[in-house]
From TrEMBL:
Pfam family, one: BPD_transp_1
Sequence similarity: Belongs to the binding-protein-dependent transport system permease family.
Protein name: Multiple sugar transport system permease protein
Domain ABC transmembrane type-1: 84-298
Gene3D superfamilies reported in the protein's UniProt record: MetI-like (1.10.3720.10)
This protein's UniProt keywords: Cell membrane, Membrane, Sugar transport, Transmembrane, Transmembrane helix, Transport
Topology within the bilayer: Multi-pass membrane protein
Segments passing through the bilayer: 21-48, 83-109, 121-141, 169-195, 216-240, 277-297
Chain segments annotated as coiled-coil in the UniProt record: none
Compartments, as annotated in UniProt: Cell membrane
GO biological process, alphabetically ordered: transmembrane transport
Entry superkingdom: Bacteria
Keyword Flavoprotein in record: no
Length: 306
């Protein structure tokens, strides 16, 4: 009888232990299903239909995908890949400085110079602003006729620069405002990674005669391989999903030069007299698959053991 009575509390405790994790996971799982899983599945369903939000959906099969992937005489094919080209240009121009600059700043702050906390806060503060606030600040600075930057350029006797209306200046402007806005987040991630590198490794490198540059390439960078892979993937995804900066600062111009893919998907799905939600959903699915492939390749390359 004693052995039977002793096992009962253990069963009750085991039941509670199984329930407790579900209570913690439950709220997150609920919001994941409602706000991520369900919209993703529903968007995939919409991509196979024609729908303008007002009438009933009609099944279109692969027509929406054909218009953007292999029917080359379709205007949507041309505009989709033109927008993808603009997005790719932004990614190529923005991702390298969004990796290199925060890394160098993090290394400098990690050396614990005087005022390190001030500089940490200074570089991180812009990331707390909304994208609308950031773009409005930079429009005020870079406006061709009334911008503060062109005002001081004019005092030097130089011509005003069309920062927001001509290429390549529009790309420079978009990249600058994005770097200023987001380097703080990557800097914090690199600082966290630098804190995990043992000081003994640097001491051993010094004993072997390594200078600061050699220590950076042979100790710091290998020690940041994990954080570097994460930052690279997340920064690339964020750059591919850029929308607000070109929408607010350049309106996609000049012409369609800065009309990036997310902005074009928004225009197809939500603007005009006949919005095409199904086509916009198909474009989103294609973009999602492209981003998934790029992320897998990046993560595989960055996490490969040397």
């Amino acid at each position: 009888m004693e052995s039977v009575n002793e096992t009962r509390p253990r069963k009750s405790k085991s039941w509670k232990e199984k329930l407790t994790p579900l209570l913690f996971i439950g709220p997150h799982l609920f919001f994941f299903l409602i706000f991520l899983a369900y919209p993703t599945i529903y968007g995939l369903v919409i991509s196979f239909h024609n729908w303008n939000f007002f009438g009933d959906m009609s099944f279109a099969g692969l027509e929406n995908y054909a218009n953007i992937l292999w029917v080359t005489d379709s205007l949507y094919f041309e505009y989709f890949w033109t927008a993808f080209r603009a997005t790719f240009i932004f990614v190529i121009l923005s991702v390298p400085p969004l990796i290199i600059i925060p890394l160098l700043i993090a290394v400098a702050i990690n050396a614990k110079p005087p005022g390190q906390n001030f500089f940490r806060a200074l570089f991180y503060a812009p990331s707390l602003l909304s994208v609308v606030t950031v773009v409005l600040i930079w429009i005020w600075l870079l406006d061709t006729n009334a911008g503060l930057v062109n005002y001081y350029i004019g005092t030097l006797g130089l011509d005003a620069i069309p920062w927001l209306t001509r290429t390549p200046w529009v790309w420079i402007s978009l990249v600058l405002m994005t770097i200023w806005w987001t380097i703080g987040t990557n800097m914090i991630l690199f600082l966290a990674g630098l804190g995990e590198i043992s000081d003994q490794l640097y001491e051993a490198a010094k004993i072997d005669g390594a200078n600061k540059i050699q220590q950076f390439f042979h100790v710091t960078l290998p020690g940041l391989k994990g954080p570097m892979a994460f930052v690279l993937v997340m920064t690339t995804l964020a750059s591919f999903n850029v929308m607000a900066q070109p929408q607010l600062a350049t309106g996609g111009g000049p012409g369609y030069e800065t009309r990036v893919l997310i902005l074009y998907i928004y225009e197809v799905g939500f603007t005009g007299g006949n919005p095409r939600a199904g086509l916009a959903a198909a474009m989103s699915v294609v973009l999602g698959m492209i981003l998934l492939c790029i992320s897998l390749v990046q993560f595989k390359l960055m996490s490969r053991e040397k």
